[in-house]
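Design job #97: recover the sequence.
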């Protein structure tokens, strides 16, 4: 934003007050609106970030559950195949064992029936007995493997149930997060509606501000034109005087030099208001730009108006005597002593004896002394290069360094120095150059009506 924002706030406050300016108090409406936009878009951004994070977490949980389920199904299928193979092997062994038993029975019958072949049958029986023992051992081993397989299947079933419970818990968490997401979306919609309302309000306020600024600028310009017309009667350029008064205010300006591409519409950097630049570039941009243009113009007019009091304080617009008559005017005249044409650098006022001579503007006494042809003289510095001289006094009432206000007594009318009789020789000088006091007296008579109007 421009560094003249505080002046713009003062300008708005003065635009609302019809009489005298009132200092601005509290934050401006533009600041409050910017703060509202900042809060609205911050909430919107936080809602979007929360939704994105939740979606990412749901996707990671779903991927992990899918992977675990696939591993479980693979292991269960492998266990089922191994169990089926073991059951087939056990069934085969049992079938072989039944066959062996049948053969033993046949051999026993043959042994009873064929006693002659006992030795052969005994040897064969021993061999069959060994084979049967081996078969029983193999069956025992298969039974042990079957029990271990059943135990592993039972463990796998418990793991599957635990995973199923975890999956149910995750599903419940997912449902809760989905509800939170829906709520965040509803809040986002509400914030968007509120942002739209704030945009409309800002556009309306910008229009009202532009109208008030334009009206205030017109009133200030009219007042300044009237004051300049009156001041111009002194024979001095009013613009030059206002520029001098403005330069004497002591108010400075400065700051680092930045390129046009370095200046951001909002505060920028780490303190930028999210979304403010986009909002200003939206429908309110024309109204905002127009209001800024009017504010710049109003700042110029206010700067000139601020310089007016300093200028008026320095202008000696009052008459140095209450009751007087002008006995000799400014410019070329017939010298009262020599009778020849000569320049006269002031006005001569005639007044009653012992009349008090008053200061015609506030200032500081720089001389209270006898000064040759001037006789007893008082000189006052009013600032901005203006000085006044009060000559031929019978007595001075001030000392060097005294601060005087308009109308304060500075001396008594007399006839000291180069004078033909009782009068006041009154001079107004700007940067040491004498000016015609008549124009100042005329401006002093007309100015109160303009200032009160």
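Job complete. Output follows.
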């Amino acid at each position: 934003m421009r560094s003249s924002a505080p002046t713009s706030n003062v300008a708005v406050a003065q635009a609302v007050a019809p009489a005298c300016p009132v200092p601005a108090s509290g934050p401006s409406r533009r600041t409050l609106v910017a703060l509202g936009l900042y809060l609205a878009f911050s909430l919107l951004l936080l809602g979007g970030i929360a939704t994105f994070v939740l979606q990412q977490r749901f996707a990671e949980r779903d991927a992990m559950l899918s992977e675990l389920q696939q591993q479980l199904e693979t292991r269960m299928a492998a266990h089922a195949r191994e169990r089926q193979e073991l059951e087939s092997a056990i069934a085969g062994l049992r079938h072989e064992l039944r066959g062996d038993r049948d053969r033993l029975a046949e051999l026993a019958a043959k042994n009873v029936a064929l006693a002659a072949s006992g030795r052969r049958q005994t040897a064969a029986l021993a061999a069959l007995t060994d084979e049967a023992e081996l078969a029983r051992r193999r069956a025992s081993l298969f039974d042990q493997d079957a029990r271990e397989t059943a135990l592993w299947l039972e463990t796998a079933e418990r793991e599957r149930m635990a995973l199923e419970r975890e999956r149910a818990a995750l599903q419940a968490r997912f449902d809760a997060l989905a509800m939170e997401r829906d709520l965040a979306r509803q809040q986002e919609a509400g914030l968007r509606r509120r942002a739209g309302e704030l945009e409309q309000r800002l556009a309306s306020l910008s229009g009202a501000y532009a109208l008030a600024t334009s009206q205030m600028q017109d009133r200030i310009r009219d007042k300044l034109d009237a004051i300049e017309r009156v001041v111009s009667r002194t024979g001095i350029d009013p613009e030059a005087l206002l520029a001098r008064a403005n330069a004497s205010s002591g108010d400075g300006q400065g700051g680092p030099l930045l390129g046009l591409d370095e200046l951001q519409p909002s505060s920028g950097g780490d303190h930028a208001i999210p979304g403010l630049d986009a909002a200003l570039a939206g429908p309110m941009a024309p109204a905002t730009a127009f209001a800024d243009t009017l504010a710049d113009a109003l700042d110029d007019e206010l700067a000139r108006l601020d310089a007016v009091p300093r200028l008026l304080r320095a202008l000696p617009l009052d008459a140095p005597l209450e009751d007087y008559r002008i006995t000799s005017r400014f410019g070329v005249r017939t010298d009262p002593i020599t009778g020849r044409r000569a320049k006269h650098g002031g006005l001569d006022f005639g007044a009653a004896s012992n009349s008090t001579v008053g200061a015609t503007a506030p200032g500081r006494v720089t001389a209270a002394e006898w000064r040759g042809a001037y006789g007893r003289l008082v000189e006052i510095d009013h600032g901005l290069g203006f000085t006044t001289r009060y000559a031929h006094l019978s007595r001075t009432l001030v000392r060097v360094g005294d601060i005087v206000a308009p109308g304060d007594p500075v001396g008594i009318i007399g006839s000291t120095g180069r004078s033909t009789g009782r009068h006041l020789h009154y001079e107004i000088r700007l940067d040491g150059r004498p000016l015609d006091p008549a124009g100042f007296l005329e401006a002093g008579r007309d100015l109160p009506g303009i200032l009160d109007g």
